[in-house]
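FORM 7B: Structural annotation worksheet

SECTION A. Query
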Amino acid sequence: MLKQLNVVLVHGAWADGSSWSGVVPRLRDRGYQVTAAQIPLTSLADDVAVTRRILSLQKGPTVLVGHSYGGMVISAAAVGAPMVTSLVYVSAFAPDDGETLGELNARVAPPPGPSPLRFGDPGFVWIDAEAFPQVFAHDVDLVRAQVMAAVQKPIAAKIFGERPGKPAWKSLPSWYLVSENDRMISPQTQLFMSSRMRATTVNVPGSHAALVSHAAETAQLIVDAASATLGDVVMKAALGA
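SECTION B. Predicted structure
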């Protein structure tokens, strides 16, 4: 009997699991069991622990997907997780061993103008709600972008200086979706990371919220990763072909 095919989705900073709402039904329609993690964004260790707990519940081969900071989380969570067959990064950080998010961000000068980040909540970082649609989701319907701003989850400031261990992308096949119009993680930095990983890469003319505005392309990249690592026979059997 062939095992269930799984996808675990990990959101990034200033978002939650609902950011995958356009991706989940597309994957389920293709025969996958899908789980969207709700990570606390309180530390890398906390977020990895939640992701690993969800991975431990999977009953078969699993594609692990991360958006934004979620890329750092999946890079750590997949280490020593035998059920994970491949990694997919969506406009995501993919730090190397000992490399911080701050160091990756510093590769490219920040955009001109005032920073949209707010530090009024001690220990946590928010995005200014008025600026959120333009810096995070400028190609998303304005009403939806405003809702995303209202429900954003802040990230612990200390995470930007945390140094991860050896990442799973050094031993697992990886895929990467580059958002060409991203205003949160520079597209140049995304291309640098995807090239360094030797990831199979696709580009979309999207914002940092490409998983929302380009849900179809995001889902297809995940399907491509599953197809390549699980094999055509398994895929056909799971889809009833």
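SECTION C. Observations
The longest helix spans residues 215-230. The chain is about 35% helix and 15% strand.

SECTION D. Sign-off
Analyst initials: ____
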